[in-house]
Amino acid sequence: MNRIAKAKKISLILNDLYPKQPIPLKHSSAYTLLVAVMLSAQTTDKKVNQVTPKLFKLANTPEKMAVLEVKIIQNIIKEIGLAPTKAKNLKKMAEQLIIGGGMRGEWTYLESLAGVGHKTASVVMSQWYGFPAFPIDTHIHRLAKRWGLSKGKNVEMTERDLKKIWSKNLWNKLHLQIIFFGREYCPARNHDLKKCKICSWAATKKVIKEEMKK
Ligand code: SF4
């Protein structure tokens, strides 16, 4: 099966499994979404959702965040990975947003903020501003390879490949659907390819060989 046919079939399966794609990170504005996405690097959405209510009670706008001491921010988010760096970035990002006139859906503007890379900007651009984007995390990168949709050596190459095989209007929802699928099915240690809804027919020969060796 070629990549386009595979992509079509995967999309149908994911539509069936996840007809709705609720945004996993709690937020009430573009700014709180940006903060939550930034905090979610190298930790789980569940953990982020546990710390953000307290953080947003104190600072749900750049103006309120900018006046907090880094130590206070760090203390609130201490249970998530890279808390010292993220706390520093949150304060700096708030100051940058105040100077820049607040949140707006512009790629270069968002990517210029402290702690905001292309992936974080892509999530906010798609989930808040509705721009077509395909944020690729390590899980989507890995699955795209297993399913033979991309041979990308890094997330940038995988993003380029997936954007070519799926039409723009599907990117935002596929990003979430693949994440939901990965969370629900892929953490298992022993992957029984035959029982898997997608790998049973989409896995590359290399993946099949690797799984047989285990
Ligand atoms: S076998 Fe299924 S569960 Fe395992 S990686 Fe492939 S898609 Fe995920």
Would you state the CATH class of the largest domain? Mainly Alpha
CATH superfamily of the largest domain: Helix-hairpin-Helix base-excision DNA repair enzymes (C-terminal)
Task: Return the CATH architecture of the largest domain.
Answer: Orthogonal Bundle
Q: Please count the helical segments.
A: 13
Average pLDDT, rounded to a whole number, is 94
Structural domain tally: 2
Radius of gyration: 19 Å
Question: What is the CATH topology classification name of the largest domain?
Answer: Endonuclease Iii, domain 2
End-to-end Cα distance: 26 Å
Helix content: 55-70%
Order of helices and strands: HHHHHHHHHHHHH
Work out the strand percent: under 5%
Principal-axes geometry comes out as elongated
Low-confidence stretches: none
Number of strands: 0
Largest sheet, in brief, is: none
Going by helix content, strand content and strand pairing, the class is mainly alpha
> Which kinds of small molecule does this entry bind, naming each only once?
iron/sulfur cluster
Protein architecture, described:
- The protein folds into two domains: about 5-20 and about 135-214, Orthogonal Bundle (Endonuclease Iii, domain 2); about 30-100, Hypothetical protein, domain 2 (Endonuclease III, domain 1, Orthogonal Bundle), CATH 1.10.340.30.
- About 65% of the residues lie in helices and about 0% in strands.
- The chain has helices at about 5-15, 30-40, 45-60, 60-65, 70-75, 85-100, 105-110, 120-125, 140-145, 155-165, 170-185, 200, 205-214.
- Helix 1 (about 5-15) crosses helix 11, helix 2 packs antiparallel against helix 8 (about 120-125) and helix 9 (about 140-145) packs across helix 10.
- The longest helix is centred in the middle third of the chain and has 18 residues, at about 85-100.
- The mean pLDDT is about 95.
- The structure holds iron/sulfur cluster (SF4).
